Amino acid sequence: MDQLNHAELVNRKFVLFAEGCFGLFSSKIAASLLRYRADSCVAVIDGSQAGRTAQDVLGYGGAIPVVAGLDEVLHLGPEVLIIGKGLHSAELPDDWKPHLLSAVRHGLHLVNSIHFRLTGDPDIARAVAEKGVTVWETKDAPEVPLNKARVLDLDTWIIHTCGSDSNIGKKTAALQIYQEANRRGIPTGFAATGQSGMMISGHGVAVDGVPGDFMGGSVEQVVLEAAVGNEWVVVEGQGSLNHIAASGVALAILHGALPNALVFCHRLGAERTKVWDTPIIPIPELIRMNEELTVFERPAKVAAVSVNSAGFTEEEYLREADKLAAETGLPVVDPVRPGGAARLVDILREHQRANADFAPIRRRG
């Protein structure tokens, strides 16, 4: 069987594996792919919710079925199995292995979203070799140089989505801006910095799999590639500066991307971090922290707050958004609500115009 490149893998019919965890916040990779690549998805595997649909679970995704096992959907012709959940672990859960082996034995390629390398398991490695399928280890680090601040030599305007926690909508905000800007005739590139962004776009880097010294350089490289032929680049954020496990990744992206503008992301109503259960620092303080940690060669300001208002009625959303706007002095927008992405692009265009006279200090040759 021919080996496939990343762009070919993400354009094939796929099944999402989210055993025991399929949900809007509990399997964010699956949720992201169903928002942006639902047309290529034939099913979701999660035996705990078999018989439901993506629409039932997420509120979008239509009639894509949730099933207990791959055998139930082989007649739909899936070519790829994508692990739809990242793990805060470097181990392969025991109950996942039979599903992955079944996929390989039926000739499906694998896209791996976790730190454990699937071919590190002897049984999976043997099956992969026998079937000749492709395994995309999204956490494999590319060979990249140290950050050289080459981004400062670009004429492209760079937007970065930072935020208050992991899994709150930084990627979604970036993709909504990217799609709307292109729709409006602003040639815009998307710089993916995590595995689900890579699976949606077919390119990028999973920064959390890169050795520390090279994280900034890996982001720089992705931004340079995304800038080719484009007026804007939107850089997907990861983690947060106040995240005790992912602050280093957040800072590496901030310094590797060297953005002209920031969009600060927050899950509306959240008071504690999702995984580590620590209090979220007041949003104005977090905004100031992100702004102060941009570098002197290109100081950047937050142009808007992008919120994830899932579970809020329209009235509740507007009320809470108004409160946050008063607290921060910034416009607050949910980019997936009607008109939200358009409003964000309007805000960013105005922010660009207002800062057009700022001349960054170019890197020294």
Question: How would you portray this structure in words?
Answer:
The protein has 365 residues and is an alpha/beta fold. Helices cover 34% and strands 15% of the residues. The chain has twelve helices and twelve strands. It has a six-stranded parallel β-sheet, sandwiched between helices. A six-stranded parallel β-sheet has the order 8-9-7-10-11-12, with helices on both faces. Strand 10, helix 10 and strand 11 (301-308) form a beta-alpha-beta unit. Helix 2 (28-36) runs parallel beside helix 7 and helix 4 packs parallel to helix 5.
Briefly characterize the structure:
Helix content is 34%, strand content 15%. The protein has twelve helices and twelve strands. The radius of gyration is 20 Å and the shape is globular.
List segments where confidence is low: pLDDT < 50 over at least 5 consecutive residues: 360-365
Which geometry do the CA atoms define?
globular
H/E topology pattern = HEHEHEEHEHEEHEHHEHEHEHEH
Q: What does the radius of gyration come to?
A: 20 Å
Q: Give the N-terminus to C-terminus distance in angstroms.
A: 47 Å
Share of helix, binned: 25-40%
> What is the percentage of strand-forming residues?
5-15%
Instruction: Compute the average pLDDT.
Output: 92
Number of strand elements: 12
Structural class: alpha/beta
Enumerate how many helices there are, as a single number.
12
